[in-house]
Every structure is written in structure tokens, then in C-alpha cells.
């Protein structure tokens, strides 16, 4: 085999090495440097930049109007309550029961029949990434011939996740560059043309990276077509509450699908809406036929988690269940989420107004049409590179602006820079 | 039927591939025998009162999925919780308990957490490789702060999800860069090792380790199997306090193992889950890893802070790859990150901060060393007490001294699978089916009860 040959090659090199009997020749000679992660690499570059004018509108982490990371008051309070009062024992493989209960209520509705009938298999997951990954591995294990349909564009890590899970990927039309909105007709065509019973990845709200969401009417049509085709809907919901400021409203797409009887899957994340980024808290849920199937599916999800990390981290889960389980803290949280969403909506308006005032020849309507943390500006990679080199503005090369990084302090600088690099486009 | 299929997955790696086929046909079988329709058929929607007409709806794609078997280790605690008998004793999972059989949060951990609360640090994403302050102290703790390999920047370290997550990332690295290479694991080993390599699609085989006749190390068998493995295999070694047996090689034996591994151009892969818990000394427990590093060997080491800092649920550990050059280490680190990103993006922050503070602040580090000695000390003393009880109660003259020779949290009792089940059913003593008891879950007060249970089971149960 090629491997044997390579190894014996390495072995003969080792034995003939001039460094002596114990050679320092490496096993890792064929390991190349990995390319920088397109998103997280931006922050690394930003941190390394000494310019005082630098602006980070790269990674999707919320900043306040001073550009500082925010820890929500409800989170601080929850942590005060937790400190010293809990041990750090292993959670069960499926994670915190309380956190899962509260998460399901958020996603499926407080009075959901599915919850009452115990038809949802759910585990605590390592934020949105971990939830998607376990689902991808589950899909591979139990529907080994299936593929996943992923929108164009999508969060870049979606491709990595399903690839490392060995699930082949196909794409479906989503973003319409000319209108900087949804290419609904092409999307519906792709849904109709996919083989019956295909798996689709849908962003529940605040599409990342475009900020372009289907309207309620469009969601109803999508749901109907999914029924006709027997497709499976997997929702990645990373921004519940963050899009409109109202978690119930942001779950509209999911509720439409549930009303239509779809047995969906859902990845939830508390990274943004509770500011728990580094705590890695999320939930993976799959709607099943009945309680018995839900128990079986949950056991299989646990079976996938065990050889990946054994059981999920406890701290963030305690924070979530403390907040969501206490009506006062929950209300406080709802207020703070609305505050974050409102600030972003305000910055969208400000950025658009600034660009229009500068006399930009282009239309910037999409800045306020789009929703959530991100704005798909329509800028080219070359224009983005100019923004970085000339103005020390950091964003991903697909032209995605993290609106959470925009402040009253930097919005005019940002508008000016964008205007400069696009005015002769 | 279904349970047989899933137990196959535990037995051999090749089964996992046929498992896919079995599952697919099982899905079809399941649908035809249990239900009248397949995933594409339509049923009446669950009525919510709104619509009276038949709505086309999907039956679940996951129709034929059967119940997974309980985890052999974590399932024990679940069964223990469900037991209402007041004599019950949980010697299942390796989690440290005080003499009152309560979980123990170390004082240094509480202090570190208070510091963190006071500082009010944010909860931003860590970089993919984790908290750099943590990565620095963890590799120093392992190799020794003055170790030249660190000065030469030859170690690629990334924070991992405790021991499991760190092993899994390393397994994924092996799969990607050494496709077809095998990992040799000890017989027996921690139950989850096989799952990790199976799910990472890395083939494995076993090397002899435990000798039931001596209840000690089958050193000759171990050497034979390592020698027989194809050149360039990965040898999974427990750095100290072997799980489940508690049997460690002596320093002389470690030297011979290192000799052989070098001769065969194998790669040593250490699982260090109990640094400090074996002897009570953090440095001493790292001596096997340091011995190999001192010889200029390249190696992998997975670390966990679950036990030695009691941070179980925080999921904090690290994967270290000691390379022959700083350049190789840089490249390897970048690839470790690339494997982590599609698994969880970046690791949890809370436990990493705790560890960085405990090790990084000299007063806290000293205090930790003392608490470590205390925990290891309690385990040594219950070992002694259990041994004493067994020796007094067992009139047959059987030599129970292996309990004293074993080291760390666990003892391999020599009870069979059937006997392990019997001791649970009759005496409400919970342990894993391989005959392993966790001494961390044993109190001095319960030693006599346990001795009675063991003796009765050993001689009377089949």
C-alpha cells in the first residue's frame, strides 16, 4: 500500500539519518499549514493591526455602542446565583434536562403539543456548531445515502460540518445578487427539482451571511412544497430574538412548518441571543413520531456525543436554565435581547442614511431590508481588501458586514470608506 | 435483533461499516413489518382543530431507529440513581467523592471562580485553539516548565473537550494524515476509547495488558503485541493510573516500552487523565511522558482536568502533539484547529479560565498540590482499609494485595461480568461490567460492606 511505502521510506530515512540512532525526523512532514478560517481569521488579523482607526465588522459577536463585548445583566445575575452552589459533576450525556426543556419551549412554543406528547428527541449541544455536527453525523448514520441541500451562500462552517460528517452536499439558490434579496423563484425550483425526501438546511431567521429572510408568505409556500416533496427540514436557528427583537416572532418559520405537520430538526444556539459565545451552549432537537421513537432517537444522539466529548459543558447550561426558568430573569433577558436587536436596527438605518447623504450612486436599501446581525453589502472581495488595507476595516471577503460591530462612533467612518471603494463601481 | 447489531459496533471496527448496510436494510425491514408505509407516504395530520381535510405530511425519516444500548460506564450512574435501596453504593464512574460520598469542588476552584466573578470577564468566543493562557500552563504542567521541548516550541497544543474531546481530535488527525494506520489499545482499556476510534474511522487492535492470573501487568504479552504491530502504528498508553486496571508499568518497564516503540518506529499516544491522582505528585505522574520526550521522540498526549481539578462537567482538557521541529508543530496546530472547527468551532471558556488561574497563580497552585495530595491520600487509605477488610474476612487465604499494588482511582477486582451483575443485583453495589470499581466512590465507612459483597460474590456467584 502507498502508506506502507511512505512509512518504510520514512523509516529508511530515519535509520540513515546523520542525527544518530534517535532521529529527529518528523512524522508530520506531510502536514501542510491549514488555510486560515475565513471568519475567525479576520479577528486574528484585526487584533494584530496597530492602527487606532481600525474597525472590526468581521465575526458575528455583539458589541455595545462603545464597541465593547457585552455580558447581559441577566447572565451576571444568573452567575452570581450559580457561584458556589453547584458542584461540577458530569451532566448526563444528553446534557442538562432543565436547559433542554426551556430550549424546546423557546423553539416550539410554550404550549406545544409536541412537547406535551414528548415527541421531541433533544440533547444539549456545543452551541450551534455542535448541534449541526451531531445532526450531520446522525443523518450519515441513519440515512447513509442522503445528501444535504445547503443555501448559497451560507455560514462557511456549514460546509465544513457536513463534509467532516461525510454527508455529500448540494446547494440551492438563495441569495439574489441583483436585488440583494431572496431569489425565491430559483429557490422554489431547486426545492421542486430535488429528489423526493431530500434533506434541506434552512436558516430559521436572520440568514447568515446575507440577512435576507423569506417573508411569512414565502415560508408558507416553502413549507407547502416541502410537504409535496416529502423533504426533511433542518433549521439552524442561531439568532432567535436577535432578528426582530422578539423570540416568538423569530420562530415564525419553524411554527409554520410545525403547523403543517413537518417532523423537523432544529439546532439552537445561545451564543448571540444570550451572549454566551464562549460557553458553547445550544440544543439539538428532532421531532419524532411518538414518545417511544423520541426516546430511541435521543439515545442514538447520545451515542454520537459520547465519543466526541462524552457529555456537554455544565456552566453555560446552568446559566441558561437559571435565566429561562425564572420569570423575572426571563423577562429581563427578553428586554436585553430586544435592546441588542434595536441597537442593530438603529445602526442599519444610520449606515444607510450616511451612505445616501454621501451621494452614493448605488442603492443601499438592502441594508435596512436585511435583518439580524449581518448585512450582505454586495461589495466584491477586491473592494473588501481595499477597505482593510486602506481603512483598517475588517470583514469577511464575501462582503458581509457584522452590524453588531457598527457604533455611532464608527458609522460615518465606515460609510465613508464604503463609499470611497464603491463609488466608481 | 437490533441490539445485536449495535453491540457489533462495539466489538470490531469492521462491523461499523457493515453496520451501515444493516441499518439501511433494517430501516426497510422496520417500515415493512411495523408500519404500512414508508417515509414518503402521507398520513392525516395531527388535528389541531383547524383543518378537517387530509393534509399531506411526512412520516419521520428516522422510522426504524432503535434504542441504543446504555453506555457501559455512564449508564451505571443512571441505574444507580434509579435504585431506591439505602445500602446502594456507586463505584461506577470515576468521579471523586469525599468520605461522606459527596462530590467535591476543590477550594482552589472556588477561589478561582470568585476571582473570575470579581473580574467580570466577558464571554467572547475563544479562538479555535482555546485560551492561550490555558494552553501555556497545561503543556508546562505536563512536560515541566523548563522542558527544552517547550523552549524550542515543538509542542502543538490546543484546548480540547476534556480527555474525550482531545482524544477525538487526535484520532481525527490520525485518520486524516495516516489513513490506514492502526492504533493499538490496551486490553482492557477505558470503555470509550473504542467508540472514539470507531467514530473517527481509525482501525484499532489490542495489545495484551492485564494478566488475570497475577492481577497485574502482562508485560511480556504487551511487548510481544507491540513488536508484532505494523511499523508506524500508534500505541495508546495510559500515562499513569491505568483505567480500568490501576496497573502501571514500572519505570524500568517504561524504558523498555520506549526502546521498543523507537525500534518499531511507532508513535506513542498518551492518555493522561489522572495526573496527580496516581501518586499524589503532579510531576511524578508525568514521568512516563517526560521519559519519552527526553528521548527526542515525537508523541501525542491527551490531558483531562476532570478528576485532578474536579472540573468534570466543565469539559476541560488539551491535546498536545510533540513534534521534532517548531515548524512541524505550527503546521500540526493549524490542522488540529481545522478538525475542531466543524466539531464545535471553539472550546468552552469557563473551565479553561479556572485551570489557567489555578496553575498560573502561585498561591493557588501550591494549594492545589496539597488538595491533590489529600484526594490521592484518601484513595490510598480506602485501598488499605478495603484490603484489610478483605484479608480479615476472607478465610481462604486468597491474596488480595493486588488492591494495594494498583494505583489511581480504580481497582480491577477480578470479578467477572456475571459477578459484576450479581453484586449489583444482590448487594446494590454498582460497578462496571469489566470488574472495575472506582475507589473514589468508596468511603472508609463502607469498606466492610464492600468487602462482604466482594467475598460473597467472588465465591458464590457464578
Description:
Chain B: This is Aspartate aminotransferase. Chain B: Belongs to the class-I pyridoxal-phosphate-dependent aminotransferase family. The complex is a heterodimer of chains A (425) and B (462). Chain A is α/β, with parallel strands linked by helices. Chain A folds into 2 domains: 39-70 and 339-423, Aspartate Aminotransferase, domain 1; 91-325, Aspartate Aminotransferase, domain 2. Helices cover 47% and strands 12% of the residues of chain A. In chain A, the strands form 4 sheets. In chain A, strands 2-10-9-8-7-3-4 form a 7-stranded mixed sheet. In chain A, helix 9 (216-229) links the parallel strand 7 (199-203) and strand 8. In chain A, helix 6 (127-142) runs parallel beside helix 7 (156-164) and helix 9 (216-229) runs parallel beside helix 11. Residues 1-24 of chain A have low confidence and may be disordered. Chain B has 462 residues and is α/β, with parallel strands linked by helices. Chain B folds into 2 domains: 72-104 and 376-460, Alpha-Beta Complex (Aspartate Aminotransferase, domain 1); 125-360, Type I PLP-dependent aspartate aminotransferase-like (Major domain) (Aspartate Aminotransferase, domain 2, 3-Layer(aba) Sandwich), CATH 3.40.640. Chain B contains 18 helices and 13 strands. A 7-stranded mixed sheet of chain B has the order 2-10-9-8-7-3-4, with helices on both faces. A two-stranded parallel sheet of chain B has the order 1-12. In chain B, strand 7, helix 10 (251-263) and strand 8 (267-272) form a beta-alpha-beta unit. The longest helix of chain B is centred in the last third of the chain and has 32 residues, at 362-393. Chain B is globular. Classes of the chains: A alpha/beta (425), B alpha/beta (462). At the A-B interface, helix 1, helix 3, helix 6, helix 7 and helix 12 of A face helix 2, helix 4, helix 7, helix 8 and helix 13 of B.
